[in-house]
Design brief:
The protein has one domain (2-299): NAD(P)-binding Rossmann-like Domain (Rossmann fold), CATH 3.40.50.720. The protein is 38% helix and 19% strand. The protein is built from eleven helices and 14 strands. It has helices spanning 11-22, 52-57, 76-99, 137-149, 174-183, 202-214, 232-243, 254-261, 266-269, 277-281, 291-299, and strands at residues 2-6, 26-31, 39-44, 49-50, 60-63, 108-114, 126-127, 158-164, 166-168, 196-197, 199-201, 220-224, 230-231, 273-274. The strands form four sheets. It has an eight-stranded mixed β-sheet, with helices on both faces. Strands 7-14 form a two-stranded parallel ribbon. Strands 9-11 form a two-stranded parallel ribbon. A hairpin with a 4-residue loop joins β3 (39-44) and β4.
Length: 302
């Protein structure tokens, strides 16, 4: 298949590209500038322009683009960028697909979303795809993000949206940030330490998206996380055990995190215990369903 990826140079995009190429698919990326290592189609989200040939070429589209929610403080301008990088890019793709003749449209659109849809803190309740949306900033972003993709269904293109949990990877994302202080012997749980984190190994994340592309029964909204959510304290202790480091420091108080991170502190002080039963029922099996094996794989010395 010809597979077009937005956000193809990001953490998930790179792993997905490698996997799809190993499977024999042709992969191209959407980018604002030409990439040297891979076929590139140009687009510009602020001006809502795109090379229409990209979507005529593609049998499948994987839309992963979006400004990071964790790299910078949530100023008013940053919040707007987080929202519009997702909604405006999805709107551009949806409109371009709708404007194409039926025979030239992609067969499948796989869109990223996030478990932030459910709210930053849903406690110990087991969350499914049918659970209601939250009321905070990231929930609002995610609701609007998904809404921009839903019109694609009316074009006859198979639509699959993925509410992605915390992606654990060796080379980026949350894990190196969490593991670094543990490696120095100063790691500690955050806040109560009881908040759940619904995580997924980067390898399974890429495999899940590839599964969505290749299997016609995968339609609609799915949670993308492993079957064993962990509390913040369990994650910290698990990392310490794998790295052979002590884990005895008291938890970092919530108010300290709120001073350091501002509104972003909600992301680490809250949590979600999210079910992945729906995608398992659709036939997907995990290579890394358990946290300990995941940490051993990702934190072992290369």
């Amino acid at each position: 298949m010809n597979i077009l990826i937005s956000g193809g140079t990001g953490l998930v995009g790179k792993h997905l590209t490698k996997l799809l190429q190993q499977k024999g698919h042709e992969v191209a990326v959407l980018s604002r500038s030409k990439q040297t290592q891979i076929r590139t189609f140009l687009w510009d989200i602020p001006t809502q322009t795109i090379d229409k040939e990209a979507l005529e070429w593609a049998d499948a589209v994987v839309h992963l683009a979006g400004t990071s929610v964790a790299e910078k403080p949530w100023s008013k301008a940053r919040k707007l960028d987080i929202l519009e990088s997702r909604t405006h890019s999805t709107r551009l793709l949806a409109k371009t697909i709708a404007d194409l003749p039926t025979e030239k449209r992609p067969k499948i659109f796989v869109g990223a979303s996030a478990i932030g849809y459910y709210g930053l803190d849903t406690g110990e309740a087991l969350i499914t795809e049918a659970s209601p949306a939250g009321k905070d900033f990231l929930a609002d972003v995610t609701v609007k993000w998904e809404a921009e993709a839903l019109p694609i269904e009316k074009t006859g293109v198979r639509l699959s949206l993925w509410r992605i949990g915390v992606v654990l990877a060796r080379e980026g994302g949350a894990l190196p940030t969490i593991a670094s202080p543990v490696g120095w012997g100063v790691g500690a749980p955050l806040g109560s330490g009881k908040q759940y984190m619904s995580w997924i190994h980067i390898q399974d994340m890429a495999r899940m998206l590839a599964y969505a592309i290749e299997n016609e029964q995968v339609v609609g909204i799915y949670n993308a996380c492993a079957p064993s959510p962990a509390t913040n304290a369990e994650l910290t202790k698990g990392i310490a055990k794998v790295l052979h480091r002590p884990s005895f420091l008291p938890a970092v108080p919530s108010f300290v995190l709120q001073v350091l991170l501002g509104e972003m502190a909600q992301m680490v002080l809250g949590g979600n215990r999210v079910s992945c039963a729906k995608i398992q029922q659709a036939g997907f099996t995990f290579d890394f369903p358990e946290l300990t094996a995941t940490l051993q794989d990702l934190l072992r010395k290369a």
